[in-house]
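Figure caption, in words: inputs first, then the predicted bound structure.
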Amino acid sequence: MCGISGIVGFKNIAMPLLNSIRHLEYRGYDSCGVAIMSNNSIVVRKNIGSVDEVNEREKLSEPDGKIGIAHTRWATHGGVTKENTHPHLSCEGDFALVHNGIISNYSEIKKELIHGGHRFNSETDTEVIVHLIEKYFVLSKDAEKAFIRALKRLEGTYAIAMITTHEKDKIFCAKRESPLVIGLGDEINYLGSDFNAFIDYTKNAVVLDDDEYAVVSRDHYFIKKIISGEVIRKRITEINWDSDMAKKGGYPHYMLKEIYEQPQCIVNAMQVDKALIKKLSDMIMKSRHVYLIGAGTTYYVSLMSEYHFSSIAGVFTPAINSDEFKNLAYIDKDTLIIAVSQSGETYDTLNALKFAKGKGAKTAAIVNVMGSSIARLVDHTIMQGSGPEICVISTKAALSQMAILLLVALEMAVNNKRISVRNKNEIEKQISHLPELIQKVLNEKSGFIHTIANKFSHINNWLYLGRGKYYPIALESSLKMKEVAYVHAEGMPAGFLKHGTIALIDEKLYSVIFMPPRSDEELYRLTAGSAEEIKARKGFTLGFHFGEKGEGEKLFSEEIILPKAHSIIAPFLELVVAQLFAYFTAVALKRNIDKPRSLAKSVTVA
Ligand code: M6R
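Bound structure (5-amino-5-deoxy-1-O-phosphono-D-mannitol present):
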């Protein structure tokens, strides 16, 4: 996820352009830059760091011009460097372009362009687009034609904005799967990844749809279909948000927005380069000892993956809390440590990795922030591509990490001859249904979950119980409740209950039961048994299950019924329900949702 903006007007636009990327910084904050048409040539100013840091060094608003584009980056291809920062220029400097998305066929286009004499300055997929346009412009001498011809060659996803010295008063833009909106002013028009880019200046906008392009000048714009060239007329949308709401895409909190981004995050997780998945699987198979490490939520992600690695691939890889790692792990040169970290900066995880490296161990990581300390330290990194997670409470990042490590487990299972490539493809097909099922839960269940959360928001103590893979889900779900709602919730294996905690059960202690689908016969039976033990002692049970309405009447005091799902993806859906349950409880209790007390997004202290 990156932020794009553009402005074309009748007076100097440099200051509003800078302001617009300040408002888009939440979409990506590795690096940023502007391209402004100044005295008939394009001036690019860019660098790594936050918008204010880059502005301090590069004076982004200094160039004088009436048209410009800007970008704030969340790196996907290529590290966090000045060269990789957008905007990118063509060889002759006559085209400048910014992009959000991933061009999947960029390597073949790059080879072709290099062969044709184009010189590249970055490792990005984006840079091929501007050179491709330049190539086609040389042939047609028509900027619009060259733009469309290049778009037709691109595979993958994009929102693109481009300016050129050949059409000094126009911004060319296009979109496929990444958002792009045109803002309409008075003798000035704007472009943005979302309304934030221009909400300080206009409330009138036109939203581009997939496979459309637009040409925007200061007093005119048109939109056409990329393939057919058909002109599209669109309704003007009036934005009635303030700028804070706009940043959250209309959601009241980042936490909710990020929960709703999860279908897309799983799509992104499934698109992680197969070679990177295979490399991690090979590293695991070659090592004598393998540990998964993480802190808080990422420890629970590690624990979930311990279950997946063991049950699917037959490889036992203990999950260890990063802060207990030194006290517990046995490390030698045949050891591999796999760290899981959203921020890539968590002190305990970083420290555990350094300790293990010092003893000659190999290291790998799943991280969300490119260029972070952990990403730079380890021997092998998988970037999860979930986009910035702004809420301190981790939701979408954790779910994506679980999905990526599940793909690694499948790869290992093939390697270990536990399943065939065909079986693996079938299971991956089931996983590919996860985005639509999460969307179904979000669309159809969140209202009911809201009601249940309101009804029970006065409860001070919860037990969260699950067996097998539902145990880490119960732990992670209970952490969500604790950290966002400040309500005590204790996660434990359902089977552990009878070994002591059952003494606490009475009508005042409430429990959430994470039921597997009936197809997981033994797990279902045993988990149901734990629910019965609680009901028999007059305890309250809230069941998350995949059965029919009323099916759990004897087992549950209340039930949240989920859509039918394959057992491989069922736990993921229950986690989404638990995230919403925690969120709505916190809303009912008027908590500080995106920044809960005493918490920080990345914990960089011991
Ligand atoms: O950035 P990391 O994933 O390494 O952070 C690890 C934990 O600090 C983090 O998951 C924490 O538990 C969050 N508050 C979870 O919502």
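The chain has three domains: 3-250, 259-432, 436-606.
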